[in-house]
Amino acid sequence: MEATIEVTGLRKRFGQIMALDGMSFTVMPGQVTGFVGPNGAGKSTTMRVILGLDAADEGRALVSGRPYQSLRNPLSQVGALLDANALQPSRTARDHLLWLAHSQGLSAKRVDEVIEQAGLGSAARRKAGGYSLGMRQRLGIAAALLGDPPVLMLDEPFNGLDPEGIVWIRRFLRSLAAEGRAVLVSSHLMGELQDAAGHLVVVGRGRVVADTSVADLIATASSDQVTLRTTARSEAMTVLAHAGATVAATDRDTLTVSGLAAERIVALLSEKAVPFSEVAAHRATLEEAYLDLTRDAVEFRAAAGPRATGQEAAR
Amino acid sequence: MTTATGTPYRSALPPGRDRFAHLLRSEWTKFRTVRGWVITTTIAALVVALLGLLFASGSRSTCGIGPIEVACPTPPVGPDGEAVDDTFYFVHRSLTGDGDITVRLTSMTGIITYPPPDHDEIVPGLVPWAKAGVIVKDGTREGSAYAALMATARHGVRMQHNFTHDTAGRPGVVSPASPRWLRLTRSGDTLTGYESADGTRWTKVGTARLAGLPATVQVGLFVASPGDLTVKQGSLGGSIEQVRFTQATAVFDHLSLRGATSPGEWSRQGVGRTGDTDWERYHRPAGLEESGGTFTVTGSGDMAPSVDGHQIERLLTGALAGLIVVIVVAVMFVTAEYRRGLIRTTLLAGPRRGRMPVAKAVVIAAVVFVAGLAAATVTVVFGRRILVANGNHVLPMSWLTEVRVIAGTAALFAFTAVFALALGALFRRGVAAVITAMVTIVVPFILATASVLPDGAAQWLLRLTPAAGFAIQQTMPQYAHVLRHYVPAAGYYPLAPWAGLAVLGGYAALALGLAVFRVRRRDA
Amino acid sequence: MRRELHAEWTKLRTLRGTGPLLLALVTLTVAVSALAAGAVSCPPTGCDHDPVRLSLFGVQVGQAIVAVLAVPTISGEYGTGMIRTTLAAMPRRTTVLAAKAAILAGLTLVAGTIAVLASVLAGRLVLPGNGFTPAHGHLLPSLADGPTLRAAAGSVLYLALIALLSLGIATAVRDSAAAIGVVLGLLYLLPLMGLVVSDPDWQRLLWRISPMSAGLAIQATKNLATLPLTPWAGLGVLAAWAAAALLGGGLSLRLRDA
Fold it and tell me: Residues 6 or more apart from A309 whose CB is under 8 A from it?
């Protein structure tokens, strides 16, 4: 059995609000999967259902093929960081890890290992109540690593971290994935996942909006738009429109061309001797691609599946 | 879609086993690593010990003959080791070997000094347990073994032996029109009592085996009359008991003896009494008037277990203060997790949720049991020494009872902690849990022992609420044949020690069951 | 101060437990009073029971509810971290505590008045059936009677002072479970210790310093001479405790980091 997280058709209602509305996805081992969506999209609820903290009204969530509550020594199957502030402030970080270790039948030696791994070092013998948020995140990650699990789940681990901390976590997550672990990281800011996640599960309003690799998502969002700077605006428009492109004037000497690759535009303009000073293929950032996806989550909620497949087919 | 790269991760750690013991160890680590909880638990133990020792050093007994202070006499001890009151008027002679004594009792009268409501006169009358009859006793030493067959003022004919044993015979009041024939037979160490209305048809009342009864015993007539007990409300709460002198006079005739008895006059003796009340000095002393086969015997006192002295459990009154601390610690042990969301981490580590409250309960119970045991042991052992050193008489008791009181106090701590912890898991709110535990354990106990609540209500409180558990501290049994103010305030509980503890245990188990149910059902 | 009062009033009003707790305060006080009045009977030969005090017996249990009402108003904020929001919005810390105290005292006075009046009424209805009749020399609780009025009004004040005492302790202790433990320990344990010590001088001393024993002297209408303190002096002891607790709490709030 491959160690993964499988979520199928989760539904959960809190009073009037549909928190989860048919959430389904699978997390694969060996890569970092970003779990993104706006606040209130159902990310945390999904994670809590996966971890057996909340019960779903419908659907199921499996870890390594089994419901979390049936796992023996769960921390050696899944490591999770939900809320870095969930600590007894008067207990030292090491003691916090120690009771967790004891609950799994692990030794104090393992505690010292994860303290080193998470870079807590000597601070581990200080009371956790005095920790900065960054230190608490490290402690939370140390706790998640305690059982050396093949699956890791982190809820908003970048929250409140300084740039240095963000870089550290990104690198750390990548190295964990490189060891063959399945890593699921949620965030409401796509930018935080840039350079960390290889795969993305984008959610909105309780269901999956897109389940795709980062490269594909960016390619789709970039949608072969090319910016052309030229002094001969009207000639260029004629030539390119003739070749089947959609051309829009965005400025006095700038055109936005879609439907033609940049190389083809250069070739056409050179052939017709239309002067131009710059041809720039637009490559969307992850953030833009994400905003593009979630801007009208209502529409996606109605037709998320077909649109996602449609995009892939068009490629 | 990208497919997974590389091989799935395999941990190098040895696979652990899922065991409840791990959970226990984990919860223990949790407890001991919060210094505040450890300190508070220690405080709970210290409070118990300090209050107990303070109470012991504050208690002083002195006795005096006139202005001269002397060491207080040690009350006699009965054949079973308990402190006894053994005072009565004894008309006796010796009997060697088997034999019997038969007599007819035709009248019982007496006086009660200064009874309520006005406490201003001495009135004729008998207290319910005024007694007169025949007795076989191992000598005249206070506390020696005996068996007696008697008529009482209100409780009919009784067969009693060795202070604590009582068997009922025919009810009814003795009068010249309705006399009682009483016969006590000795055969080896077995004594059998018979009674009859007419001296011909006899009914057996009961038998008593007095192990080790020597061949020669004292046999004869006796009269006793316990003090008149009244209870009044104390102005600062609690109650004030008063015991007043009473005296009974019984008229016997048709006295006959069978067996090897000593010849000559009857010996007469006021066992255990000096007869120094004004009534005895100026009006009617205890004694025997004999004329033409009629024996008129007058006496006071009682043959009964004594509570004159310090009960060891009084040293442990501070347990109540300790319990409040225990409640707070036990509640915090679970609500601290809810407050910070730590509970989710706990449930992630042990997803079989029902085990969480159980593991916590086991840990907190064990911790406070040890704390309670240490505190109770220290308090009882050193408290007793201090009491004795201050001239106090400590009521003797068997080591089994002592162990029960000490371990029972520790169990009281443990069960209370489990109850409070379960309430914490149920309510998830510290205040609600602490107040519920207090209102069900501490408050009923205080209301029952230190307020104006009538005795009946106080006893029901200690039957129905978890406060019933305090019964485990009771050392003095209640005796139906001894009239006393058997109320919680005096250390007498309506339930037997283990039954009381079982009530508390039941509440704790129920609350824990509900907590398990709730933790399983609700989203964390 | 007006803004602080308004804010604290809104906070307490919108707290879920406030309404049910006030209701519990009234019903529990009246129910326990009626039960106590119903359980105690006085034989025709006379008894030492104080009928007014019996009618107000429920106050001894009602005070626990008052503590439950008062403690979370501050310790709840420490528990959730809302205290930081509160102090950011209203930086005059002493004023915040004063506002909390005023709102709590006001609420307790209102609910306490209802509870005490209903208890007196229940006593009037129940006690004559148990031998407390004017024929036997017992005056029925009546507010027209000076000592009864003092006992009733004093009981309401007693409850309000318990609220202030609890608030003060909770502000100093911060943790809700620990605070409620301290409050109830202070209230219920001292009287019990008074019964344990055998020395009468110690007994009277413990009685005098115990906020509950001394405070409840305000309910006494019989045998006043045997009490170690007069009724108002007794209530004064509780007031001193409450003042000391509020002072300690206020200092802790001002001096310690939130």
Answer: none
Rounded to a whole number of angstroms, the distance from the CA of B317 to the nearest CA of chain C is 7
Q: What is the dihedral of CA B344, B346, B352, B357, to 10 degrees?
A: -110
**Whether the predicted pLDDT of B470 surpasses 90:** yes
Mean pLDDT along residues C237-249? 96
**ipTM here:** 0.79
Q: Are B285 and B275 in contact (CB under 8 A)?
A: yes
Q: Any idea what DSSP says for residue B361?
A: H
| Contact assignment for C195 to B489 by CB distance below 8 Å | yes
Residue closest to A231 by CA, chosen among A290, A184, A273, A294: A273
Write down the pTM of the prediction: 0.83
The CA-atom distances, in angstroms, between A268 and each of A223, A245, A264, A282, B70 are 20, 11, 6, 19, 128
Crossing angle between the packed helical segments C93-126 and C18-39, to the nearest 10 degrees: 30
- Smallest Cβ distance to B340: which of A85, A95, A211? A85
For residue B347, give how far its alpha carbon lies from the nearest alpha carbon of chain C (Å). 21
- Smallest Cα–Cα separation from B323: which of B43, B6, B28? B43
Number of H-type helices and E-type strands within chain B: 11, 20
Q: Which of A28, A102, A199 sits opposite B22 (nearest CB)?
A: A102
Across A257-266, A290-299, B173-182, B489-498, least confident range? A290-299
Chain C residue with minimal CA distance to B234? Answer: C48
Closest Cβ–Cβ partner in B1, B12, B352 for A148: B12
Strand partners, A206: none
Phi/psi at B10 (5° precision): -120, 125
Tell me the C-alpha distance between A64 and A62, whole Å. 6
The count of structural domains within chain C is 1
Q: Which amino acid is at B389?
A: A
Kindly give, in sequence order, each residue whose CB lies less than 8 Å from that of residue C106, ignoring residues fewer than 6 positions away: none
Query: Are residues B58 and C36, on separate chains, in Cβ contact within 8 Å?
Result: no
> Which chains would you list as touching C if contact means 3+ CB atom pairs under 8 Å?
B
pLDDT digits (tens, 9 = 90+) for A9-46: 999 988 888 889 999 999 999 999 999 888 888 898 99
Q: How far apart are CA B435 and CA C183, in angstroms?
A: 10
Q: Do A49 and A155 touch, CB atoms closer than 8 A?
A: no
Q: Phi then psi for A15, rounded to 5 degrees? A: 60, -120
Report the distance separating Cα A181 and Cα A80, nearest Å.
13
User: Using CA atoms, how far apart are residues A22 and B325, in angstroms rounded to an integer?
Assistant: 49
- With vertex at residue C174, the alpha carbon angle to CA C170 and CA C180, rounded to the nearest 5 degrees, is 45
Residue-by-residue DSSP string for B381-434? HHHHHHHHHTTPPBPP--HHHHHHHHHHHHHHHHHHHHHHHHHHHHH--HHHHH
Spell out which residues of chain B touch residue A70, defining contact as CB-CB under 8 Å.
Answer: 351
A186 has which bridge partners? A35, A155
- Residue in C47, C71, C241 with CA at minimum distance from that of residue C127: C47
Q: Measured over all CA atoms, what is the biggest interatomic distance in chain C, rounded to whole angstroms?
A: 66
Identify the burial level of C169 via C-beta atoms within 10 angstroms of its C-beta, where 0-12 means exposed, 13-18 middle and 19 or more buried: buried
Closest residue in A to B15 (Cα) is: A76
B351–A3 CB contact, under 8 Å: no
To the nearest whole angstrom, how far is the Cα of B17 from the nearest Cα of chain A?
7
Which residue pairs from A271-276 have beta carbons closer than 8 angstroms and sit at least 24 positions apart in sequence? A272/A235, A272/A239, A274/A230, A274/A232, A274/A235, A274/A236, A274/A239, A275/A230, A275/A231, A275/A232, A276/A228, A276/A229, A276/A230, A276/A232, A276/A236
In the 8-state DSSP scheme, what is residue B279? I
Residue B318: which H helix or E strand, with range?
A: none
Pairing of strands B287-291, B246-261: unpaired
Quick one: pLDDT at residue A300?
Answer: 42
Answer for the pair B71, B391: CB distance below 8 angstroms, yes or no: yes
Domain of C214 in residue numbering reads as 2-255
Decide if C178 and B328 are in contact by the 8 Å CB cutoff: yes
